[in-house]
Specification:
With 501 residues, this protein is an alpha/beta fold. The chain folds into 2 domains: 5-271 and 447-500, Alkaline Phosphatase, subunit A, CATH 3.40.720; 275-442, no CATH class. The protein is built from 16 helices and 18 strands. The chain has helices spanning 15-23, 28-35, 50-59, 63-66, 94-100, 142-149, 167-194, 206-218, 229-253, 279-286, 293-309, 312-317, 320-331, 369-385, 475-482, 497-500, and strands spanning 5-10, 37-43, 105-108, 121-124, 137-138, 199-204, 261-265, 269-272, 275-278, 352-354, 361-364, 395-400, 416-420, 425-428, 437-439, 446-449, 451-458, 466-471. The strands form 4 sheets. It has a 9-stranded mixed beta sheet, sandwiched between helices. Strands 10-11-13-12 form a 4-stranded antiparallel beta sheet, with helices on one face. The chain has a 3-stranded mixed beta sheet with strand order 14-9-15.
Length: 501
């Protein structure tokens, strides 16, 4: 039985990028870990997005059990859609179960852990921690120690606030990510040495942030974006950031003893975004969503201005400095957790709403059960018939929530979920677009895919083993079993150790 377990979350990591870099000697620490361990693809949640995925990882339960489907609370539970916090995840977290089993735990930068809750060990909260919040550590005095140990520590870099359309801004963003990764590694190392625990769980968001903004510069299947001098420099800077993460992995793995267990996981994989499906425009055209006229006009003007700003002729006409200044001002108002709908939707006259990218689904609102089912079925039929910009069928599948989730909180999920072209076409929630589709071919962005990564190394792991059918549901029961804490039927997943031993 391992003396300690170190679980490292690599948000958004995918073997599609990591394997070629390891083979080329670009990520030596990861190469050493892979060479000494077992590996496999790790299935994410449906959809493969941050809130349900990390909640599943920490509970060993699916979204229908833990009730987390979005960065905000379900429209069916809270009409104001307040931000999710740790208290909304009702099932026991893995570190709580380990504490009950007599094990100490260190939890660092795991999304959805704010506000920090008491535990036997320590916690530094992750994504969704409000900027400047005082209650982001447990115990509270750890915050002062953290600032002394790592003065430049940052919890997150929120993508919508950064404009990386210009090379100098892209490089600056990547430099900031490297610094954030380095500081997080220093903190985890300090905690492992000075506040050692049986279980350490730390999440590094660097892969996700890079891949959302720069996927096409890195895509091993398409070298087009990195063929230009500017693209080559951005791709090199992005790889340099991954190499910083690799250095941190080597540093942390070097702290482990032979009888410790190291697990590397990601909450989802990644791939290119080809187009956006403006799902609320779809509902407006079906007559199922009504907008407040003034708010709708403002949002349409914003999107027209943004679309104009992407035109090549305007970029040539406006001085570069002026373009950057305008775009930076607009970005400062944006946030990945902003409420798009405040004062903009006429709820009394609306029958359906697509609330966020994270959900990839439609909520049916108002009316009785029979009417709601008619609306849901109509959306499903129209979606199935919808053709993309290329004339081909848009969706891979459309399913009611009861076919996707099981558990007592399934009723809080969107009524209808869908997948479009393997998530290469991304449903989005903005109210301003006038078109059903917007291309993303001129942008280097990427989005999540269902297959994440799983690597196990250390105690009891046979090198070279391929792990099959693993999912995020299996992480919590595997950690508990490794530390000798009984699952007692609390998890939907299974212990993976028999497959790598």
């Amino acid at each position: 039985m391992p003396r300690r377990v170190l679980l490292i979350g690599l948000d958004g990591a995918t073997f599609d990028l990591l394997d070629p870099w390891v083979a080329g000697g670009r990520l030596p620490a990861l190469g050493q870990i892979l060479g000494s361990g077992a590996r496999g693809r790790l299935a994410s949640t449906v959809p493969p997005t941050t809130p349900p995925a990390w909640a599943t990882c920490m509970t060993g339960l699916g979204p229908g059990q833990h009730g987390i489907f979005d960065f905000r609370r379900s429209l069916l539970e809270d009409p104001e859609r307040g931000l999710v916090h740790s208290g909304h995840i009702r099932p026991e977290k893995v570190w709580q179960r380990l504490n009950r089993g007599g094990k100490t735990c260190s939890v660092v930068n795991v999304p959805l852990t704010y506000p920090a809750a008491p535990l036997d060990g320590q916690m530094v909260t992750g994504m969704l921690t409000p900027e400047g919040a005082p209650d982001f550590t447990w115990p509270s005095e750890l915050a002062d120690e953290l600032r002394r140990w790592v003065p430049d520590y940052r919890i997150n870099m929120d993508i919508p606030r950064y404009d990386t359309a210009f090379e100098e801004d892209a490089i600056a963003f990547l430099r900031g990510l490297r610094a954030m990764c380095r500081a997080r590694g220093e903190l985890v190392l300090r905690l492992m040495r000075e506040r050692a625990c049986d279980f350490t769980f730390a999440v590094f968001v660097l892969p996700d942030r890079i891949q959302h903004l720069f996927w096409k510069y890195l895509d091993p299947a398409d070298a087009g974006w990195r063929a230009s001098p500017e693209g080559g420099r951005i791709a090199a800077a992005a790889l340099g950031a991954y190499q910083e993460l690799d250095r941190v992995l080597g540093m942390l793995a070097g702290e482990l003893e032979p009888d410790d267990l190291l697990l590397l996981i990601s909450d989802h994989g990644f791939g290119p975004t080809r187009a956006y499906f403006n799902a609320n425009r779809f509902l407006v055209e079906l007559g199922l969503l009504a907008l407040q006229p003034l708010a709708a006009a403002r949002k349409q003007l914003f999107f027209q201005a943004a679309d104009l700003g992407e035109r090549d002729w305007l970029r040539r006409a406006l001085p570069r400095r002026l373009q950057r200044e305008i775009r930076t001002r607009l970005r400062k108002r944006r946030s990945s957790t902003a409420d798009e709908f405040a004062g903009a939707v006429d709820m009394a006259r609306s029958q359906a709403l697509f609330v966020s990218v994270a959900t990839q689904g439609f909520y049916v609102i108002g009316a009785g059960l029979a009417a709601r089912e008619r609306v849901r079925d109509r959306i499903a039929v129209e979606l199935e018939a919808l053709r993309g910009p290329d004339g081909e069928r848009l969706v891979d599948w459309v399913r009611p929530r009861e076919e996707v989730y099981t558990g007592p909180r399934t009723a809080l999920a969107p009524d209808l979920l869908f997948q479009a072209r393997g998530y290469a076409v991304l449903g989005r929630h903005h109210l301003g677009p006038r078109r059903l589709f917007d291309t993303a071919e001129r942008s280097p962005v990427g989005f999540h895919r269902p297959d994440g990564v799983l690597v196990a190394s250390g105690d009891g792991v046979e090198p070279g083993r391929e792990l099959e059918r693993a999912s995020l549901l299996d992480v919590a029961p595997t950690v508990c079993a490794a530390l000798g804490v009984p699952a007692d039927g609390a998890f939907e997943g299974r212990d993976l150790a028999p497959e790598w031993g």
